[in-house]
Structures are given as C-alpha cells and as structure tokens.
UniProtKB/TrEMBL annotation:
Keyword Transferase: yes
Keywords carried by this UniProt record: Transferase
Organism placement in taxonomy: Bacteria, Bacillati, Bacillota, Bacilli, Bacillales
InterPro entries for this protein: Acyl_CoA_acyltransferase (IPR016181), GNAT_dom (IPR000182)
The protein's name: Acetyltransferase
C-alpha cells in the first residue's frame, strides 16, 4: 500500500470512496454528485486529499480542510473525512492515512488537527485515541441547518 496526495486527475477514484463514505453515514448514494464535489474541491484547491492505494486500487482516503484557531492565532487542519473500504479495515490503512495527515500538518506548520466522528463509531474512536488524539469534553458543538 502507498499513499499519494490526490490531484484533479484522481477525482473519480476518490469520488467512489467518498460516495461509500456518505452511504456509511446514511446518505443516499449519488456518484455523480460525489464526483462533482470532489472534482470541485481538488480543482479549486479547497481541500487536500490523501488517497491510499493498494495494487493500484483506491482503498481509503482522508480529506482535509484548512482553517484557523482564533484562540491559538494559528492555522489548523480540519480532518473532515476519513474512510477505509470495508474489506481493508483493520489492515492499517486508516492509521497510515492518519500518519500522512500528521506529517503533512507538521510540514505545513499547522497548529493542530481537529476532527469529529459519530458517537457510535467506536472503531474510529479507538483508532484516534490509540494515535494520540484527545477527546474534547470541554465544549459543545452546535450547528444550524440553512
């Protein structure tokens, strides 16, 4: 397995995984919308996507969005999406993607990596905690649908 930083020409490979990721989170499958979304993020340089490949096949991805921490007065990374195909879960793909994200953050002199996951996604929570991510028990997160 090896990990690459995805470019625009990789958008269809990423989009297949992105569609599976959305279905995992109970969204309706829509490969055309997934392709359009990923293409736009890469084309407009609005996100950084790392793609895990095993014998040329895409088996996982991590999508990062740049952000800032006002309190820390620094740049940070939002690890918005992390997905590994069902058949390769438990094989180290997720950990390898997270290591790549960490190295990227250090190289780019980011302050931190932040993420959120579903309360019932125990497998992901275990991986994050194993790799040193700390659960935030101090703040509530709110959202407003528009």
């Amino acid at each position: 397995m090896h990990i690459i930083k995805a470019c625009v020409t990789d958008y269809k490979k990423v989009a297949l995984l992105f569609n599976e990721y959305r279905v995992f989170y109970k969204q309706k499958s829509d490969i055309k919308a997934a392709e359009r979304f990923i293409y736009e993020r890469l084309h407009n340089k609005e996100s950084v996507i790392f793609l895990a490949l095993e014998e040329g096949e895409a088996v996982g991805f991590a999508q990062l969005y740049p952000s800032f921490t006002s309190i820390g007065i620094k740049r940070t990374i939002i690890l918005n999406d992390l997905y590994v195909t069902e058949k390769t879960r438990g094989s180290g793909v997720g950990a390898a993607l997270l290591q790549e994200v960490k190295e990227y953050g250090k190289k780019e002199k980011k302050d931190s990596i932040v993420l959120q996951t579903a309360k019932d996604n125990a497998r992901a929570q275990h991986l994050y905690e194993k790799l040193g991510y700390q659960k935030d028990d101090h703040y509530f997160y709110y959202s407003l649908s528009l």
